[in-house]
Write a structure and sequence with these properties.
With about 750 residues, this protein is α+β, with helices and mostly antiparallel strands. The chain contains 27 helices and 10 strands. Among the domains are: about 200 residues, no CATH class; about 100 residues, no CATH class. Helix 23 crosses helix 26. The protein is elongated.
Length: about 750
């Protein structure tokens, strides 16, 4: 591998500065070589022809090789030979490669010479006695085998301590040959030349390059190992293997037994409302008055990316297993600018090109889309009744005549104001008597709603139990949501939705056990904690949450055949803290941001790849708010006003962004406003057309002779009957559009006249 080789070379160069070589034989070559190694710069100046690096380090190498020939090799001296070979090879594969090869060839020949010398048994005693004859005879055989003209031998001879002795022997051998005389024994003592003591080689310079190279190689291997493992883990998350999981819950198809009565609340004996336990939710079933919160600066659907690849890499998701369930525990977000609970996002309506945005025809089309999700139209199939959390004990049908009386009572009493009840008391008592009887009223009382919507805005969100039909009627006229929905029934051709439902009142239901299930094209793509503005319970396990998803899938699989719809939103109840809990259905809601159903911990645009995937994924993303810390105090309930503001920060800007992406911003042009607002609405006269709840309720009061009031909910501007009513949000969007487009003064004047 290239990287370990480079690391080894660099570490060898760093350690070379501390090389200690024999000063007697290797100076000044090796000290100069150390200097060149320290300043090594590759092919710039070091690895060029006849450079000081090659010259000095080549001489140093030859000196070390000669030293080993003279004194015999040791393990340390042999390692120094190897290190010098590696240092000179730093210039291999460069323009001076031939010179490097020559140096290495020279070193190889010197090394072979050392082997030859070591194999001979030349005996040279301290003195030459009369026995010199025998000694020389033994050595003659070796010296005669050496080619003294060999360049390697000459380089060794130039610095060897035994050079003088060799020369004497060579001369004596020549003289003996020429005279053909036989040597005689002599007792003369001839002292041998004494070699200068040579200090031992210091091997400390070897440790640095060797150990450093090993450490560098180990570092590279460790980095490669962990990088590859991380890559394999990422692939495993994106393509989870099919594994067998031991299930804590009995959810097998063949072993699932009929459920007994679900334990959905504690054994309370007194049915009373928990303090501040019912907070008004911003969006449930349809309300034609848009009050929602939606977008921010995140682009909606035009970003090209995998539907769930980014989720598997996000730290908030704790685990994904073979059943394709992603669990996300999210921090509590309660600010207006937070990206949660988008609803009433009108710019996403698919029919805008035909109706315009927030026009009378738009709201007519919207009401048609919502109608199949009115309770009276989906609650009757047996499969649905089987899974209901609480089935209605009593369902009362009212006639068109009753409807008119109820609407009149709402207008005259100003929505059931206590000081005006006496004005309509008799009318409501007569209707109650005509509607029938409630039978045996349970001690806990009833929870009441109409087909189109619940009554959660009545009496400032008071959801106390009711015990009589009269009290139920007072509750109905106290809810502006209900009164507005009843106004729409006047133009309906059937009376399917002319119903009031009475459910057993469960005082002890856990509000944090309510969940919203998002079904898109037949698949459950997401589930969210309903109370997105509160921390969830501590100790909720992932296994229980996955069981919640599995039960929700089975529930939808059983009730879906009863309807001709592919996409819907279910409100479910499941106390996941209990062992053996069961998922129950609370109600069904229409699909889509433009139809008023809140997205809770998701966002209709930011999370479009989750809620509306391009292709089926088979995955479900579940989100809940993480539990509070042990020392963070009790959960606080937010007031209605604060809940309604969460996520409401930049709705106008985001609506405009969506219109521009869809190429529909033209409908905000003031020149188009009159045409779009004048589009005919089927089944209604122009005098009956309204665009907001406030306008519709104001018209109802005027119809019964009650002075119109400025509704606190805002809405359309109030004025004479001949003036065109524009939705408040439409006006705000149009003002921003005109400012951004920089329309000319003439167009601005037309705009001002239109909105005055």
């Amino acid at each position: 591998m290239y990287l370990p080789k480079v690391a080894t070379a660099v570490l060898a160069l760093r350690q070379a500065a501390t090389i200690v070589l024999p000063s007697a034989y290797c100076s000044p070559q090796c000290p100069s070589c150390k200097t060149e190694i320290t300043n090594f710069d590759g092919a710039t100046t070091s690895c060029v022809a006849n450079s000081s690096f090659i010259t000095n380090c080549g001489a140093c190498q030859q000196c070390i090789m000669t030293y080993n020939v003279e004194n015999g090799r040791t393990e340390a001296s042999t390692q120094m030979e190897v290190v010098m070979i590696n240092i000179i090879n730093l210039c291999d594969n460069t323009t001076v490669a031939p010179q490097v090869s020559a140096l290495q060839s020279q070193a190889s020949r010197i090394s072979r010479m050392g082997v030859m010398l070591a194999s001979a048994t030349l005996s040279v005693s301290a003195t030459i006695t009369t026995s010199t004859q025998a000694a020389i005879t033994t050595g003659v055989e070796f010296w005669k085998t050496v080619d003294s003209s060999d360049p390697s031998f000459q380089s060794v001879l130039a610095t060897a301590t035994w050079a003088a002795e060799f020369s004497s022997w060579k001369a004596a051998a020549s003289a003996s040959t020429s005279s053909s005389s036989t040597p005689t024994s002599s007792s003369t003592t001839i002292p041998l030349p004494t070699a200068e003591p040579t200090p031992p080689l210091n091997t400390s310079w070897i440790a640095g390059p060797v150990i450093g190279s090993v450490l560098g190689l180990c570092t590279v291997i460790v980095v490669i190992f962990f990088t590859r493992r991380r890559h394999m883990q990422a692939l495993a998350l994106m393509n989870p293997p099919t594994i067998s999981i031991t299930k804590e819950f009995n959810d097998g198809e063949s072993t699932h037994s009929q459920p007994s009565k679900p334990q959905l609340h504690s054994d309370c004996t007194e049915a009373k409302e928990l303090e501040n336990s019912e907070v008004l939710m911003p969006a449930e079933l349809p309300a034609l008055e848009p009050v929602g919160s939606e977008l921010n600066n995140t682009p909606p659907r035009d970003q090209d990316h995998d539907n769930y690849a980014h989720l598997s890499k996000t730290p908030e998701y704790s685990k994904m297993i073979a059943d394709s369930i992603l669990i996300g525990r999210r921090p509590l977000r309660t600010r207006p600018e937070d990206r949660v609970n988008a609803y009433n996002h009108h710019a996403l309506a698919p029919w805008l090109a035909e109706t315009g945005i927030l026009t009378p025809l738009y709201f007519h089309r919207r009401a048609q889309e919502i109608q199949p999700f009115n309770m009276a139209r989906w609650i009757t199939p047996p499969a649905v009744a089987k899974h209901m959390l609480r089935r209605p004990t009593v369902v009362l049908d009212f006639t068109p005549g009753h409807l008119q009386t109820i609407l009149r009572a709402a207008a005259i009493s100003r929505y059931g104001a206590p000081e005006n009840i006496y004005l309509i008391e008799e009318d409501l008592e007569n209707i109650a008597a005509e509607l029938g009887d409630l039978g045996d009223v349970p001690a806990e009382g009833f929870f009441v709603r109409v087909s189109n919507c619940s009554l959660k805005d009545a009496d400032d969100g008071n959801q106390k139990p009711l015990y009589t039909i009269y009290d139920a009627l007072v509750k109905v006229i106290s809810s502006k949501r209900a009164v507005h929905s009843l106004l729409d029934l006047q133009s309906e051709s059937d009376t399917v939705d002319h119903k009031i439902f009475f459910f057993p009142y469960f005082a002890c239901l856990d509000k944090l056990s309510e969940w919203r299930c998002f079904i898109y094209r037949g698949e459950i793509v997401a589930i969210s904690q309903t109370r997105f503005y509160q921390n969830h319970h501590a100790g909720v396990r992932d296994e229980a949450l996955r069981e919640l998803v599995r039960q929700a899938r089975r529930l939808w699989g059983e009730i879906a055949p009863a309807f001709e719809i592919e996409s819907a939103i279910l409100d479910l109840y499941a106390d996941v803290r209990e062992v053996g809990f069961e998922v129950k259905l609370i109600e069904m809601n229409p699909w889509g941001a433009h139809l008023g159903t809140g997205s809770l911990l998701f966002h209709w645009i930011d999370d479009a790849d989750i809620l509306e995937p391009e292709v089926p994924t088979g995955r479900t993303v579940l989100r809940l708010v993480q539990a509070k810390g042990a020392g963070s105090g009790p959960v606080k309930y937010l007031p209605k006003a604060m809940v309604n503001e969460i996520g409401h920060g930049s709705i106008i800007e985001d609506e405009l962004k969506v219109l521009r992406r869809r190429g529909l911003e033209w409908m905000l042009d003031p020149k188009e406003t009159h045409r779009l607002m004048s589009l005919p609405v089927p089944g209604k006269m122009s005098s009956e057309i309204t665009v907001t709840r406030a306008e519709a309720l104001g018209r109802l009061r005027r119809e019964y002779g009650v002075e119109a009031e400025i509704d606190s909910e805002g809405g359309a501007e109030q004025g004479s009957e001949r003036e065109m009513k524009l939705h408040a949000r439409f006006k705000r969007m149009q003002r921003v559009f005109v400012a951004e487009e920089g329309l000319e003064e003439e167009t601005l004047k037309e705009y001002v006249e239109l909105l005055s």
